[in-house]
Amino acid sequence: MTSQSPTLSLEQFALVPAWTRRQPAFRIVMMPGEVLRVPGRCRTLRVISGSPWVTQDGVDHTPQTGATLALDGARNGALVSAERGTLLLEIA
Asked: Yes or no: is domain 23-91 CATH 2.60.120.10?
């Protein structure tokens, strides 16, 4: 018998208390033109590769590859879009 790990959507992941998570982050691949709403309960967004455009509480950010953006205090979460090429993010 094989054991399968459950698959969570980003919305479901955001509802799981951080101290009970088995994996520290959720990885997402985005294509140019795609937009993702990151729930307000998520705390950080790390750019693994690519060029994101992030809008958080009406303020725009363009973090570079390797940068981590704190999402703490974002009342309505954040909107992320892939600007040029494929985008790989880690959200926790």
From this structure: yes
